[in-house]
Hints:
By secondary structure, this protein is α+β, with helices and mostly antiparallel strands. It has three helices and four strands; from the N terminus they run αβαβαββ. The chain starts with a helix and ends in a 13-residue tail after the last strand. This is YhbY family RNA-binding protein.
Amino acid sequence: xxxxxxxxxxxxxxxxxxxxxxxxxxxxxxxxxxxxxxxxxxxxxxxxxxxxxxxxxxxxxxxxxxxxxxxxxxxxxxxxxxxxxx
Length: 86
């Protein structure tokens, strides 16, 4: 997906003042499976780790800019849960 297409995506998930809960991770998983690429935004007063969220959701972190991240369906490079160095 090129940058122009990412730019025009609308956020489909908003992370609020409670932070990233298990329900949000489950929703991210569902949407990534259905849409292949999603945009997630979070509030200014909420601190999150985009890499940790991508890992928890089993998705690839495509881009982070400000308080917005783009997640994509994980490619076949490595399987979720496989932490071996080959």
